[in-house]
Design a protein that fits this description.
Blueprint lengths: L6 H11 L1 H7 L8 H10 L3 H9 L5 E3 H5 L15 H16 L11 E3 L19 H21 L11 E9 L4 H9 L6 E10 L4 H10 L7 E4 L7 H10 L7 E3 L12 H16 L5 E3 L9 H5 L8 E3 L7 H9 L8 E3 L5 H4 L1 H11 L5 E3 L10 H8 L7 E3 L7 H11 L7 E3 L25 H17 L6 E3 L8 H33 L1
Family: Belongs to the PRAME family. LRRC14 subfamily.
Organism: Nothocercus julius
Keywords: Leucine-rich repeat, Repeat
């Protein structure tokens, strides 16, 4: 249902609707009304008014999360609207704030915080063109360089040189915007808009380029670091990074697939692993760690036991964990603090059921999100699973795609879901009985869509009916076959697709050449 608007907010909407009048009248608007007008303009996508509001911003800070979040005048949170029209107007307004000749009042703006913007799947803005994190990184870098060029060619008025605005942003860098961002970071000290990187995501970069740019971001301020997919980072690279760079404020660390492979470790590699564990322990704020798709068999203790702060978020999906790893997790200091846990890709019922349920028991009072995709959970495990999940009264999200469960077993689970008071989101598998007889699990991508759609739709309706009967229609239940939505991947999939095709082609050429050599 639509959020209520105060009389003040309705007046602000009426004011900004007449774009020309609003732009002419800004000079006589009380300073404390700027935040109200900003949110109203954002809601109505009045780009020109947003630009002028920011260009004439009279306050010390401009915090997008606070301005667009729930306010007394309008409870609706607009921070998930990454509307291109609004965000481009906001950033160009910021550039023009610096260039604008001094007005009668002092320029007071010191901090612009863009980190509160959230990227989501469904955009409700009218323009339907989101500006994702990568595009925001690109535009801000471009505007900073434009500013410098402009300032070199123009005699600026008195006071312009003193302007210095810290711009807090979550940067997202790939090969395609790398050079531009590097230039913007290198010239930061000369630019009135100072880029301050709070979170950094790197994809599709060589380790050398990643090492170079991460130093430029000022790692001492970094709170979140995501190195993903096409950055070929290995254990030795990680050791070099941690030895040469300190991350004192880092809260969240995501490492790319195959960073660790402990299958054939030498004595020297064991020392590297221990050194990485020690370096992680120096990050005293670190509470979120993702090491998905690495091979960590038997080494989880070595990496995590040095940590002095308990982890709240742990993703060790598809990491080939053995019983010793699970036993360590269940008995470690982390187990009582885990709010988000991903153990996908492990055969939990056959390998370590009791230890897993012990871990679940320890984290049950705080656990918000549990992901158990492709864990070989079958019909005969459902009662045990319900028993394990019953104490998890704070659970908001449960994802268990890719498990061989029948429609009946799913109905049994959904009746139980009605009893979890905080549950909001469930991702459930296509029932086993919708696939042809003889389908083996885990199902490969080529057979994933080979199921009876009508039968699935009927079962999905029944499952939603169970939630409805239990007065839980607010719970979102879905089956995203190829995994959950990822805004960053979605935004850069063209570039990453091209990169993957290129590496596939290179691999194919190498293979063909070796075949030719063999036949000579």
């Amino acid at each position: 249902e639509a959020a209520m608007k105060s009389l003040r907010f309705l007046c602000a909407e009426a004011f900004v609707l007449n774009t020309e009048f609003a732009r002419r009248s800004l000079g006589s608007v009380a300073h404390n009304l700027f935040p109200l007008l900003f949110k109203a303009s954002y809601l109505l996508e009045r780009g020109e008014v947003i630009h002028d509001l920011v260009e004439n911003w009279p306050l010390v800070d401009l915090n997008m999360g606070k301005l667009l979040g729930k306010t007394a005048d309008y409870q609706e949170d607009l921070s998930h609207r990454t509307c291109s029209v609004c965000l481009e107007s906001c950033l160009t307004g910021l550039r023009d704030y610096v260039l604008q000749p001094p007005s009668p009042y002092m320029k007071r703006l010191k901090v612009v915080d863009l980190t509160g913007i959230k990227d989501v799947e469904v955009q409700v803005c009218e323009c339907k063109r989101p500006m994702g994190r990568w595009a925001r990184t690109q535009l801000l870098s471009k505007l900073c360089l434009e500013l410098l060029l402009h300032m070199q060619g123009v005699q600026l008025g008195p006071g312009a040189a003193e302007i210095s605005v810290d711009v807090l942003i979550d940067l997202f860098v790939t090969e395609r915007n790398y050079e531009l961002v590097v230039q913007a970071l290198l010239t930061r000290c000369s630019c009135p808009l100072k880029i301050h990187c709070v979170a950094f995501r790197a994809d599709n970069l060589t380790p050398q380029k990643f090492f170079y740019i991460i130093k430029l971001t000022d790692p001492s301020l970094l709170r979140k670091l995501e190195v993903v997919h096409n950055v070929r980072l290995e254990m030795q690279h990680l050791q070099i990074l941690f030895n040469s760079t300190r991350f004192p404020l880092l809260v969240s660390l995501t490492l790319p697939a195959r960073t660790f492979n402990v299958r054939r470790l030498t004595a020297a590699d064991e020392l590297v692993l221990s050194a990485i564990g020690e370096k992680l322990s120096e990050m005293t704020h670190l509470t979120e760690l993702s090491m998905a798709f690495s091979i960590l068999t038997g080494r989880v203790r070595k990496l995590l036991s040095p940590l002095k702060t308990p982890l709240k978020v742990l993703d060790v999906s598809n990491c080939s964990l053995n019983h010793a790893d699970m036993a360590y997790l269940a008995n470690s200091l982390h187990s009582n603090h885990l709010e988000v846990l991903d153990l996908s890709g492990h055969n939990i019922p056959d390998l370590y059921p009791a230890t897993f349920f012990k871990l679940l028991g320890h984290s049950s009072s705080v656990l918000r999100s549990l992901i158990l995709e492709e864990c070989n959970i079958q019909d005969n495990h459902v009662n045990m699973l319900i028993l394990g999940l019953s104490p998890c009264q704070k659970l908001q999200e449960f994802k268990f795609l890719g498990n061989p469960l029948s429609a009946e077993a799913l109905k049994h689970l959904f009746r139980f879901f009605c009893e979890l008071p905080m549950l909001k989101n469930v991702e459930f598998p296509v029932p086993r009985d919708c696939y042809p007889i003889g389908t083996t699990y885990p199902i490969d991508d080529s057979n994933l869509c080979n199921f009876d759609r009508q039968k699935y739709d009927r079962v999905a309706e029944e499952l939603k009916g169970i939630l409805l009967q239990g007065n839980r229609e607010g719970v979102k239940a879905s089956t995203p076959l190829f995994g959950s939505y990822d805004a960053a991947v979605e935004e850069t999939n063209n570039e990453l697709g091209t990169y993957l095709m290129k590496s596939f082609k290179e691999t194919l050429e190498k293979f063909t050449n070796s075949l030719k050599e063999m036949s000579l």
